[in-house]
Amino acid sequence: MSSDATPAPGPLVTDSESDSGSDSDRDRDRDSSIDVLVLGGAGVDTIVYVPELPLPLADSHMIGTGIVTRAGQTGDFVALGLHRLGLRTHHLDLLGADPEGDLVRAFHHEQGIPLTAVPQPTGTKRAVNLVGPDGRRLSLYDATRGRDADRLPPETVRALAARARHAHVSITQPCAHALPDLRAAGVTISTDLHDWDGRGAYQEPFALAADLVFLSATALDDPERTLRDILARGRASVAVATDGAAGAYLLTGADEPLVHVPAVAPAAPVVDSNGAGDAFAAGFLHAWLSGAPARTCALHGSIAGAHACTVPSTRAEAIGREALLAEAARLGADGSAAGGPGHGARHVRIEG
Question: Residue 336 has what pLDDT?
Fold first, then answer.
């Protein structure tokens, strides 16, 4: 089939429909409620720990720590974080019939996270992450693993959304096209704009359609101005900009003051910033869906993000509910005991 052809959607495959599950298992999965439906962001990363960033120009570099390919991109790790915190989580995305897709399916099966995979003829999303000694990263995304015509089947989105309390939407193609169906289903929506500069057209539909918006302050000249613009122009009632070791900035209304959330000192050395933003979103959402105040939600996000920076990105690991709540209790409801080194440095992303 040529690359510009648009095949009809193939049969959907979920881990609960695999041969390893009984009929009762499959029925229970189809009938069960979902706390958070995660859309998009499924893929595979190849992790390379480099001696420094930017990497010096040379014909070759010897990588003594090895080069590791593992399942897990932004949607996978948000789903993992939510699942470890006890929320019923379901992940929906496009996957190829390729080794990368097999890794993603195995990841969800091993973690116990239900996955609905839509066939993707161009292959599963993949990236190479260069990680420096200080935990900073530079990510290279394979832009050939998708097409403008790609869509998540609307009937599948609607069916899963009908069972869900909330949807977290990754900014990967083609999730923007699913936003109207999610809105019609009546679920609340969150999204992570990553390193948006506040002006790029691609992220804008996500920013304006979500009730809760996360983004990195990496590319922002004025985080407060961008957060206020999101609330003024879109549906969001809460917007958060994470800023690595500087903490985070929280805005809960057009007339509310900007709140600075101190960074939480990690319990172990920082080794990698990969996944810190995904962990922050999962921690925040866990508290937000329980009705906690936004400041408490931000503290929970900061704790989860700090933990993520102590875990090499070659491993799939997220903080559990008991550990998160214990650390939140130690720090106090407002995080007043937080401080010290934050949860990792800013990261650089190369896309397109």
Answer: 52
In order of 72, 243, 331, 351, the CA distances from 80 in angstroms are 9, 22, 24, 24
Between CA 120 and CA 144 the distance in angstroms is 12
Predicted local confidence at residue 315, as pLDDT:
86
Rounded-to-integer distance, Cα 22 and Cα 146, Å: 34
CA dist., res. 77 & res. 192, Å (int): 12
Query: Would you give the distance in Å from CA 134 to the centre of its chain?
Result: 22
Find all residues with CB under 8 Å of 46, minimum gap 6, and list them: 67, 68, 69, 126, 127, 128, 129
Chain mean position to CA 145: 19
Q: Find out whether 171 and 202 touch, Cβ atoms under 8 Å.
A: yes
Question: Diameter of the chain by CA atoms?
Answer: 59
Give, in order, the Cα–Cα distances in Å from 200 to each of 20, 194, 205, 219, 293: 44, 12, 10, 11, 30
All residues at 6 or more sequence positions from 200 whose CB lies less than 8 Å from its CB, including other chains: none
| CA pair distance 129, 310, nearest whole angstrom | 17
Q: Per-block average pLDDT, block size 10, for the chain (352 residues)? A: 38 40 41 92 95 93 94 97 98 98 98 97 96 86 95 97 98 97 97 96 97 96 97 98 94 96 91 88 98 97 95 89 95 61 35 32
| pLDDT computed for residue 342 by the predictor | 38
Q: For residue 131, give the amino acid letter.
A: V
User: What pLDDT, on the 0 to 100 scale, is given for residue 334?
Assistant: 59
Using alpha carbons, list the distances in angstroms from residue 101 to 2, 108, 122: 20, 11, 11
Q: Look up residue 268 and give its two tokens.
A: 């172990």
Both tokens of 97, joined, read 């019939």
